[in-house]
Design goal:
Helix content: 25-40%
Shape: globular
Order of helices and strands: HEEHEHEHEH
Strand content: 15-25%
Distance between the termini: 21 Å
Oligomer: single chain
Number of helices: 5
């Protein structure tokens, strides 16, 4: 996530943000970088450890709200997960709202096929070692299509 955010931050007119959902019930979503902030200046915030839960719906709602406040014409939300969402129904509703609001939503499953059932656009990889290459290929394809 840090490598991709740093790369995106260097591209003119791209405004990345990175949030994590770590499973803490009292604080399910944590921000590493907000839109408009320097990725490099916030690199120390990327050391988030998982805690067993997957509050995906909360993370999508949080990220969608942050995206809604940006001025960019094209908005993209990439969800990376290694598990099933805590609430399938709430996650489906959050994704549907994003799509109706013209936010491109892409799911990347790491060792899980759950993203195939949730997201119209999804990628499944077997382990985190493939994540960096997958993210860069995805961003290259998305930016070329723009």
């Amino acid at each position: 996530a840090l490598a991709l955010a740093l790369a995106l931050d260097a591209i003119p007119n791209v405004n990345p943000a990175v949030s994590f959902f770590g499973g803490y019930e009292s604080d399910p979503v944590q921000m590493a970088v907000k839109h408009g902030e320097s990725v490099q200046a916030n690199a120390g915030r990327f050391g988030v450890l998982p805690n067993g839960g997957t509050p995906m719906a909360s993370a999508i709602w949080y990220s969608a709200f942050a995206l809604s406040k940006t001025r960019e014409d094209r908005k993209m939300l990439i969800v990376i997960t290694d598990g099933d969402p805590d609430s399938q129904d709430a996650t489906e509703k959050a994704i549907e709202l994003c799509e109706r609001s013209d936010v491109e939503v892409i799911g990347i499953g790491v060792g899980t096929n759950s993203v195939r059932h949730l997201f119209d656009q999804s990628i499944v990889i077997s382990d985190f070692d493939q994540l960096q290459t997958t993210l860069f290929k995805l961003m290259e394809a998305a930016l070329v299509a723009a």
